[in-house]
Design goal:
Blueprint: H1 16-59, H2 64-92, H3 97-105, H4 109-112, E1 116-117, E2 127-129, E3 135-137, E4 145-151, H5 158-173, E5 180-186, H6 194-203, E6 212-215, H7 219-228, E7 233-234, E8 243-244, E9 247-251, E10 257-262, E11 266-267, E12 273-274, H8 277-295
């Protein structure tokens, strides 16, 4: 008989030491499996908790400071930049004639006419002679609305355009034209005769209007009128015509100044002043509108 040896038998069986070791290893595996499963559960629970927190953070309302910094401020900057660019283009960028005309036609009437209200000041009175040689004073038009312009009797720039606008305004008024007066004061010291203002009246289609008065007089009588209405007149040596303010005053039936407009035109490349017909029409209707408005004030 052979002796039992403490060595492990390798004849296809498993020794006792091997079985014990195997049982310990199995227990260790079970413990490890159990331990890992518990960790997995904890990790799963943690993941679910984190998901819940993320979900809650998405549902939670955005703080006001985020709305302010990421919403209000960028929106304000956007509009500010837009307004600044528009203002710069209006005052600095020379648009092609077609685009400039379209842009101007779409502008508001107040902006187009450079219109502003005036304090309730009595319009300074004056007495001159008109295109027919008759004496005319501003105060004689009390009870009617008056638009007062300052025109050069030999002007070939803005003054003829104002005359066209007066024609449109007079026709636009219809029956209300009986209650308004169109008055022009000559600003040309070299062409201040009755014949000069009569020629301007005839050439620019104003002769048929009984409520049109182009007034003139000696330089001594004209200068105080210019000054009382803030009209600047300059005549350079050798110049064919004057450079002058182109204000239009709207005066109510009580003789008080109500509105001030500043006539503007486009300049062609050759230096000729012009306005497209659509814009002349808007100006004329605007003059009629503010005469009516002045009439009721």
């Amino acid at each position: 008989m052979g002796k039992w040896r403490g060595a492990d038998s390798h004849c296809g069986g498993v020794s006792a030491r091997a079985r014990v070791a195997a049982s310990w290893n199995l227990s260790s595996v079970r413990l490890q499996v159990q331990s890992h499963s518990q960790i997995g559960i904890r990790i799963g629970q943690g993941t679910r908790e984190m998901s819940s927190r993320v979900l809650m953070s998405k549902i939670a309302p955005t703080p006001l400071w985020r709305w302010f910094f990421f919403g209000v401020i960028p929106l304000g900057l956007f509009f500010s930049i837009g307004f600044a660019v528009t203002a710069y283009q209006e005052t600095h960028v020379a648009l092609p004639a077609g685009l400039a005309n379209e842009f101007a036609i779409r502008r508001s009437l107040t902006t187009l006419m450079n219109l502003s209200p005036l304090p309730n000041r009595a319009a300074p009175d004056f007495s001159l002679v008109d295109q027919s040689g008759g004496a005319v004073s501003l105060n004689q038009f009390r009870g009617k609305a008056v638009v007062l312009a300052f025109l050069d009797s030999r002007c070939t720039q803005v003054c003829p355009i104002i005359a066209q606008e007066f024609v449109v305004a007079e026709r636009s008024l219809g029956a209300d034209a009986l209650h308004v007066e169109f008055v022009g004061v000559n600003v040309d010291p070299r062409s201040n005769s009755v014949a000069d203002v009569a020629r301007f009246t005839r050439v620019h289609g104003l002769a048929g209007f009984s409520n049109w008065h182009f007034l003139t007089g000696s330089l001594r009588r004209l200068v105080p009128v210019w000054r009382s209405y803030g009209i600047e007149v300059a005549l350079a040596k050798g110049a064919a015509q004057t450079v002058h303010s182109s204000y239009l005053y709207f005066i109510n039936p009580l003789g008080y100044e109500r509105y001030l407009a500043d006539a503007t035109v486009f300049q062609s490349e050759s230096g000729r002043a012009y306005l497209p017909p659509g814009l002349i029409g808007r100006w004329g209707r605007g003059i009629a509108s503010y005469l009516k408005k002045s009439q009721g004030e």
